[in-house]
Specification:
The chain is mainly α. 75% of the residues lie in helices and 0% in strands. It has a single domain, classed as Farnesyl Diphosphate Synthase (Orthogonal Bundle), CATH 1.10.600.
């Protein structure tokens, strides 16, 4: 692929737009839960939450691109989508400036949420930025899955809901916590596929991931169990996510047939789509009491 260095196309590719469903879905879940509770939404904080989540996802992609390049993780035989720094589409110096710019814009977009949520929103925002910057480092120690569950499930769902409803309690909002955890688990399926595809190259560079720690067969089982657990967590609220479970099982069966190679990127893309599917099924289910 011919891409001019530091061009708009280069930055578009570096942002990895196909991954943005993982940022959108949990915000949608939080908004749907608030809609059911309140009967309406405050659209200003809703849009700010969505914009902040999308910007932080792009930021995480840029940070991951830069740090993996600098750390020698992106080898010549990489099976995943091409990375901007490794391909020379974006220079390391420009990528650092881009990361600083996106982080700054994200913080500016999220700062007005203090008006609705109080000053502790600054703490939440700071935690998101720190998590974004540390993700690549922690992912090499098999801790990436924990960050995904926290920052793509618990944090966005609960904070989005809180900014709409104005309150949150573990006892009173047990179903919401269950939905937030389910969203994090569903999103983690994306990381499982990504790390499963890269297990051979990750092993060579010393990167520890769940698939490398538990092996191929157990990764298939884990992918299926994570999807089943997500559906079980919200089953008392809506039956619709059962359709997601069928998709989850279908995708893991395809993983078993493919096993290795670039064709696993198709499973990665379909898993990304299934995250949004789960969010939509849950949202429709609780709104219409299905």
């Amino acid at each position: 692929m011919m891409v001019k260095t530091n061009s708009a196309k280069a930055w578009f590719l570096a942002a990895r737009p196909k991954t943005l469903t993982g940022a959108m879905a949990p915000v949608c879940v939080g908004l749907s839960a608030a809609w059911v509770e309140m009967g309406s939404l405050q659209w200003a904080p809703a849009l700010m939450c969505m914009a902040f989540a999308l910007l932080m996802q792009i930021d995480a992609n840029l940070v991951n691109d830069f740090l993996d390049y600098r750390g020698g993780i992106d080898l010549a035989d990489r099976l995943g989508p091409e990375r901007a720094c490794a391909q020379g589409w974006i220079t390391p110096e420009a990528m650092q400036r881009g990361i600083a710019a996106v982080t700054t814009v994200a913080c500016l977009v999220g700062l007005p949420l203090v008006w609705w949520g109080g000053w502790w929103m600054v703490v939440v925002g700071a935690a998101c930025v720190v998590g974004c910057l540390l993700y690549s480092t922690l992912a090499r120690m098999a801790l990436g899955d924990v960050l995904v569950v926290v920052f793509f499930g618990l944090v966005p769902v609960l904070v989005t809901y809180y900014l709409q409803a104005g309150s949150l309690s573990l006892e009173g909002d047990a179903k919401l916590f269950a939905a937030a955890l389910a969203m994090g688990l569903v999103t983690d399926c994306l990381l499982l596929v990504n790390n499963f595809r890269d297990r051979d190259t990750d092993r060579r560079v010393g990167k520890r991931t769940i698939p490398n720690l538990i092996g191929e067969r157990r990764t298939y089982i884990l992918y299926a169990l994570v999807g089943a657990a997500a559906c079980a967590l919200v089953y008392s609220q809506t039956r619709l996510p059962v359709f997601y479970l069928a998709v989850n099982f279908y995708l893991v069966s395809r993983m078993q047939r493919i096993r290795r190679g670039r064709e696993l990127n198709k499973i990665l893309g379909q898993t990304a789509a299934s995250i949004l599917l789960f969010a939509l099924l849950y949202s429709v289910g609780i709104i219409f009491n299905i």
